[in-house]
Design brief:
By secondary structure, the chain is mainly alpha-helical. It contains ten helices and no strands. It has helices spanning 17-37, 44-51, 55-62, 65-86, 97-123, 126-129, 133-148, 155-163, 168-177, 182-197.
Length: 199
């Protein structure tokens, strides 16, 4: 059975080379700020300073802080999407579907260490929490892997249930407030997947 094709998130017109480089420079600066000081440090001024450009450049590029955060989230999700669509196994094609599903969860949990606060902020925006492109893509990818593995039942509901433990707000609460380690979370994710799919 041919897997359902997945949509590409955040599709945009092709940019000129210098525009694409400037965008990547700004997003890398934003990601570094979040990694070093948390999402509260992600201001237009701070990104401009870190990237070595004027604040007007950041505003022209992203419009607002929320636009910058969405672009950063999209940037992060694109990287994950590239890995699970075209990267090496077990996250990418070539591994058994349940192994790929386990690797997908592990990759999402690993993302939280750097992008968790940005993901949490996006989850808290009503328009993105359940209907955003990143979540829709994740649901479709999980459904595709479950179908490929021969799992039956309501795959859409099952995919939503499986993705719930990977929400940034929950993962960050478990790590920061409850003291759980990322290793414990990834082991728990694999256990859940194999129990639910009986694989």
């Amino acid at each position: 059975m041919t897997p359902t094709p997945l949509p590409r998130i955040g599709m945009q017109p092709v940019e000129r080379g210098d525009a694409a480089r400037n965008r990547a420079l700004l997003l890398d600066a934003a990601a570094t700020l979040v990694a070093e000081r948390g999402v509260d440090a992600l201001t237009m001024d701070a990104v401009a300073c870190r990237a070595g450009v004027g604040k007007g450049t950041v505003f022209r590029r992203f419009g607002s802080r929320s636009g910058l955060m969405q672009a950063l989230l999209d940037h992060t999700e694109r990287e994950l999407q590239q890995q699970f669509m075209f990267g090496p196994p077990p996250l990418g094609p070539g591994a058994p579907p349940i192994d790929r599903l386990v690797a997908f969860g592990r990759a999402r949990i690993a993302m939280m260490e750097v992008q968790g606060d940005v993901l949490r902020a996006a989850e808290n925006a009503p328009e993105f929490r359940f209907g955003g492109p990143a979540r829709s893509l994740g649901i479709m990818h999980v459904i595709s892997l479950l179908r490929e593995a021969g799992v039956d039942g309501d795959l859409e509901l099952l995919a939503s249930a499986l993705l719930a433990p990977l929400e940034a707000s929950l993962v960050l609460h478990q790590v920061r407030d409850l003291g759980m380690t990322p290793a414990r979370l990834t082991e728990g994710w694999e256990h859940l997947v194999r129990r639910v799919t009986r694989c």
